Amino acid sequence: MRKVSIKFINSRLYYSRRYLSRNQFYSFFSCNKNEQRPIKSKNDDFLIDESYNNVEFDEYISPSFSFDINIDDDKWKKKEEIEYNKFIEKTKKDSINPSTFFNTQKMTKHIKNTSGNSNYEKLQIHNKHIDNNISSNVVTSNNSTPHNVETFYEKENIYEDDINIFLKNSSDDITLQDGGIIKKLIYLDSNYKSLHYENKKIGAYLNSILDLLERGSTDTHKDENGKNGKNGKNEKNEENEENGKNEQNEEDKVDKEYEADILYKDNKERTETPNERVGGGHIQYLQGHIFNNIYEDPFSLNNLKYQKLVTNFTKFAGYYTNTFFKLIVENIQSLTYNNLVFTLNLLDHLNMKNMMRDLSYEVIKMLNKKKKSDQQDILQNANINKKENKKINDIENNIKLCVHYINILNFHSLYFCEFYDYLIEYINNMKNDVLCFFTLQCFTHSLRTKHYLDKIYFLCLKKIHEFNYEELKCMIYCFHRFCKEYSKFYDLSIDIIKNKYIHLLNMNLNFVQLLLKITNAFNKNDKYVELKGLIAEKIIMRVGNIQREEKKKKGQYLNNSTNVNTSVDMWTNVERHKKKESSSRMCAPYDTTYLGANSCVSKVFMENSVHNTIYEDNIIKIIQCLKYLEYNKKNSEHVKTCVNKIYEMINENMECLEKLDIEDIVYSIVCFSTYNKRLILYNNFLDIIYEKSNELMNAKNICLWIYPILSLCKISWYHRNYIELLFGYIKDNYILNRLSVFQVLKLLSSIVKMNIYDEEVYKILIEKLYKEWDIIKKKLIDISTFLWCCAYINIIYKPLFDSAYNLIIDLINKDNVPIINNVMYKNCFVNITWSFIVANYHKTHTNFDQILNITFLKRNPNENEAFKRLHQISDSCFKEIPKTLINITCLDTLYAYCTHEKCKLLRNNFIIYKKEKDAVKMKNKIHDELINLLKNSFHISFDQYVEPYHNSPYIIDICLNQTSKIGVSIFGKEYLMRTLKKSSWDFMNTGIVTLQMRILHAHGWKIIPINAGEWLQLNFDQKKNLLSEYFKQYSIQI
């Protein structure tokens, strides 16, 4: 059994022996590879090979339709007949295109070359006659007489006549229920091409058909059911008789209509303009809003008018739809202006993206050709004025056409630079509304079309005073992505807004967000700072109005709730009565009291839900403004007041936080932290971030997940769930690799400033940063930050410290004066020197005196800047490397820091006391507990707050024996770090503690360290036992 193509069967059925030679047959079908090409004989013309053995598909034959036959076995003959009958039924319904079964180009190539043009044309007409016979179920057998080709040749204009008659009689529209006229148009075009009638084109027919299609898609159709009674009855009888036969067809029809409806809905949703989210997703500005308020496109569509047409196009085979639109593309120059627009609209609704691309390419090519020909005609024509007037009208129409095309193409993410090149030449001919709309289309492609925005920018500087408020908003929106490059335009537009339109800002919060974003870009300019203050005043008024409206609504809600309660009481009473008399109410009408109570309840709740939606939307838009209201020294008091008002509004409407985007949550944290506000509200924000962790990780801003920790470290706000989430992201190599080296460095320093210790996390970050050492070493501030982080957490990564030490020595030897004199770089050297001392590099490496000379160069101990850190450096150097100080040029400065009395005031002054207000209380509590234990349990004498040596940067909290130098040091939050497992301050092995213990040990002191975090977790007996062990270790008699 072999698979045989339907084409082969068709050839067996329709082709006569005398019209197909064996040689031509061989070129159409392929047999065995070993079979020799038959030699053509004069007496064997037009013989068909009867052998079906070893049949193979030809590469030119589409195997889309095939069925199984076996000539030698009678078992398959019935199946062959059944499938053949099915094939004939399909040809009746025109569901199979006959032209797909014949590849006449290859089959007739030999005839055209050998038999002359007349035989070739007759064979093509014969093929056309075969197509007609298939559709009318006329089949000729192999033994039938040859067809009268000459008779059919005289009827070659049959399609033209049918189309002309149809267009003449169809005054209304085309329903396209069966697509008959489209099919005839396609057949006519194929005949023109096959008969080489190049002078005959179907452009005129296309225009007429498209006009009828457009009319049918916009006009209201009459109800076809309103017919005479007899006709209606006859139709019903016929439908009843054929109901059984067409049941399956009806189901298929319903399925197709459903698919068309879905397609229509999808197109509707696609063509509706979405919210344009700009600047990290916070300026929500509707392009549709601009579209409606700025420029009314004369070709804008209503989807409801195209629903029937789109549905009809989906009913017949895609082959006809594609071929029909290909004909339009091929005959683009013959189409009218309106039909070019209608065709694109139709393709848009059918979602035929590839065909839209081909059509747009041909349209812009045609427009460019016309532009060149018009220029030549004006030069050659004597009456130039008339030509120029006509050209101006054509340019206006072409501008509208091109603007409409790029608008539709942008919906499908298609970009044709030729349209923009064409339009940019005529921007001076555009009216303000068209210019704004074209600028908006250029904005959507960002950098790809920035060179067009540059040309529009210079034109806008001249015409800025001609724009109305909506047009000015549109231009401000379109240029804001590159606002610093278009600063002159914004200087002029801001003046216009402050003088003419400032009262309108309270109406549109989207535009307010856009202006705030622009003011942040020019935050050093007093003009924009003033504008931010004016905007803040408007937001304060808006917040006040919302709060007043909410109070009114609450009062109304209380009144309505009493009505609802009475209605509910009536409702429940009716329900009880209904249960008692259920049998009698089966026949009785509905109780109006019951219905009235029910409707009253639903009405009240409907009104409240609508109000709540509008109310929440306004609150969300105001909260989104926080992103642009961060602290700035130049900001007016109105900005700070505005932030406080928004904070109050959030506290009153906590339910709105759940509806905020993840970006809004993050930037709210960033804004409040810049004002050093320690708010319980942070916990609400961070809880939402933890719940929306997937949104945080997949946000458009790929580094958004580190923003909260960068802000929280400023106020030392700890949230365990967020920190766990953060550490999980750091351990994920894929997520961490999204960050740049500078972002990773900021992340490391922020975690260190948060005083959270996780050795695994720190090692991951340090190793990743050191891989980018070639980038970090270019900036001294990055080197100092990196070294300080490692020294603070007491993780001395030797490759890093070795590379940094050699780099600093080389830098000093080059005598780089700008680096030495720069104040910021001087503070960097303080951190670098302190880090090397913590790592003991001052004792193990040479040339450390050079680093000390740079660190203390032009330093004054009377200044408070970095005094505490410089005092620690000089103190450790005098004790640990006294011989090295001989070669130091700034020895007097070091000695002045060591002996200065200011150290006694600053030794207990820690920054963390401002962030952690309970740090001092915790240390005092432990201090009191130790005194009570020593007095009551151990009966040991002691001294409090003893200076271990003169002008020491450290203090001994409890001195047990000053002669033996035994003391107790309490290490509270100012020295400790949190651990994530216990969320308590219990990690003591930090760089500060290590340095202090080392220096005190060098001075001969034996220190009993008290870890404040661990001490608070012990009970009385455990605390007592801990002290006993230390006393035994240092031989203290109890």
From TrEMBL:
Superkingdom to which the source organism belongs: Eukaryota
PROSITE patterns for the chain: RAP (PS51286)
Residues covered by the RAP domain: 966-1029
Region (Disordered): 217-257
Signal peptide (UniProt feature, chain positions): none
Name this polypeptide is given: RAP domain-containing protein
